[in-house]
């Protein structure tokens, strides 16, 4: 296996550069959390590091820690806003595993493993995503 090379033109790199808009839930110096535009469930959020990493194998430890600290904040907000306990935490490594965006990201999906269906299939309503991002942002502590 060779180490994956980072493509600066991937969609999440563009989001980090501000070239493409997103519905931000939380941001700090090392991470960004935002709504998935093709959610697998209502309230699906992605957490990404602000470093060049394709998958788990090339994530610097300090960014891994930062991503999971942010994921904890987001999950707490999802539970509060969506009034449910079950959140699927998912992260795909390599296209062979179904990874479609080659920038490391953790999915936080308010659903059950038994209800997970098609991946990245259908765009959600933009106004709905904006409203949910606002509610989650306000619930971050
Ligand atoms: P992966 O298959 O790489 O684990 O997941 C990539 C995720 O990124 C998918 O859930 C997909 O819906 C989401 N996604 C793809 N393009 C965009 C985009 O332009 N904006 C946002 N917010 N999410 C995206």
From TrEMBL:
<feature type="domain" description="HIT">
    <location>
        <begin position="11"/>
        <end position="121"/>
    </location>
</feature>
<keyword id="KW-0378">Hydrolase</keyword>
<feature type="short sequence motif" description="Histidine triad motif">
    <location>
        <begin position="103"/>
        <end position="107"/>
    </location>
</feature>
<dbReference type="GO" id="GO:0016787">
    <property type="term" value="F:hydrolase activity"/>
</dbReference>
<dbReference type="InterPro" id="IPR036265">
    <property type="entry name" value="HIT-like_sf"/>
</dbReference>
<dbReference type="InterPro" id="IPR011146">
    <property type="entry name" value="HIT-like"/>
</dbReference>
<dbReference type="InterPro" id="IPR001310">
    <property type="entry name" value="Histidine_triad_HIT"/>
</dbReference>
<protein>
    <submittedName>
        <fullName>HIT family hydrolase</fullName>
    </submittedName>
</protein>
<dbReference type="Pfam" id="PF01230">
    <property type="entry name" value="HIT"/>
</dbReference>
<feature type="active site" description="Tele-AMP-histidine intermediate">
    <location>
        <position position="105"/>
    </location>
</feature>
<dbReference type="GO" id="GO:0009117">
    <property type="term" value="P:nucleotide metabolic process"/>
</dbReference>
């Amino acid at each position: 296996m060779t180490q994956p090379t980072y493509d600066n033109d991937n969609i999440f790199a563009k989001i980090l550069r501000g070239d493409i808009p997103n519905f931000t839930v939380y941001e700090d110096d090392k991470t960004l959390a935002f709504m998935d535009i093709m959610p697998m469930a209502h309230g699906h959020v992605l957490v990404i590091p602000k470093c060049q990493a394709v998958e788990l194998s090339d994530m610097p430890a300090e960014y891994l820690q930062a991503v999971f600290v942010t994921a904890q904040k987001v999950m707490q907000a999802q539970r509060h806003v969506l009034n449910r306990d079950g959140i699927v935490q998912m992260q795909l490594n390599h296209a062979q595993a179904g990874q479609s965006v080659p920038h490391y990201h953790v999915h936080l999906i308010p659903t059950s493993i038994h209800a997970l269906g098609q991946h990245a299939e259908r765009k959600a309503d933009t106004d709905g995503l904006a409203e949910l991002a606002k509610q989650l942002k306000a619930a971050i502590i």
